[in-house]
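Collaborator request, handled under Task 6.
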Amino acid sequence: MITNCIIVGLDDSATARAAHRWAAAYARAAGKDLCAVHVLDWPIGLNASAVKSGTRLRVPKQDIHESYWRGMHRVFDETSSPPGSMLQFAQGDVGDALARLSTNAELLVVGTREPVRAGPYIAGSVSHYCISHASCPVVAVPEQLPHPQYDLSDQSIRQHDFAVAAAS
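Structure tokens returned to the collaborator:
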């Protein structure tokens, strides 16, 4: 069971990697444990003998295909996480699994992309789901984009671009 720690959703996307870097730095500064959670989308990543539908908040190593397990651990190891950090696997809908795991967490960190609008709502957004359903505070970290050189005397710089550059 995950308790009193920082949880970060992790996959191999640029936004999840940015969230992991932010969460690792925050956990280190706060002296907290970090638990990265990769949510398997059934049945991808599972051994044939371990295929079960539904949500599992913890999937044991023996249920995960070895090459998939190693691949996600390579992604996890790209970031220098604080001592005691771990990578846990879950299964099911990503937003639902992360929101459920947030019950005993101190903070949930997720990556976020530019919103995709479907009418007045954001469609398919794990970060939006987590913000709406998590039991703890949620930090949504944008993808770290390459930084152009800014001429701060140029009044045409958009506030968003400056905020992204300043946050890095």
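The cover message to the collaborator said: "The chain has a mean pLDDT of 81. The two ends are 32 Å apart (CA to CA). Please let us know whether this matches your experimental observations."
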